[in-house]
Write a structure and sequence with these properties.
The chain is mainly alpha-helical. The chain contains four helices and two strands; from the N terminus they run H-E-E-H-H-H. A two-stranded antiparallel sheet has the order 1-2. The two termini are 20 Å apart.
Length: 115
């Protein structure tokens, strides 16, 4: 689940995070690639098949969800300024879904013992 959600998060960076009329901004154009840093530690633990520190992993998962929700709340507040037009793109929603799956993956992760 962690690897799949990481792929979803990377894909969301190239999708529209903000849009208004004909103007669209992707996650990379908004400079949001730093959000993927929250995914490094659990991804490295999964790829190396090492145990994951539960509190660190859950902290990164909660931080990822919190950042996604904060962006969505901030962008939805901009709707009022832009004549109630939806300014939230699909990439932001995909990132939120990926962050939730990521958090669930961290909770359910057990390193494999087979070599």
């Amino acid at each position: 689940m962690i690897v799949a959600s990481c792929c979803m998060a990377v894909a969301s960076m190239f999708m529209d995070w903000a849009r208004f009329l004909f103007v669209r901004k992707s996650g990379t154009a908004l400079g949001l690639m730093f959000l993927l840093a929250l995914w490094l530690y659990p991804m490295l633990a999964v790829l190396r098949k090492k145990p994951l520190n539960g509190s660190w992993g859950k902290g990164f998962g909660i931080a990822s969800i919190a950042v996604a929700v904060a962006f969505l709340v901030y962008a939805s507040n901009k709707q009022i300024v832009f004549f109630h037009a939806n300014v939230i793109g699909n990439g932001a929603w995909l990132f939120l879904g990926a962050a939730i799956i990521y958090f669930l993956g961290i909770i359910l992760y057990r390193p494999s013992t087979a070599n």
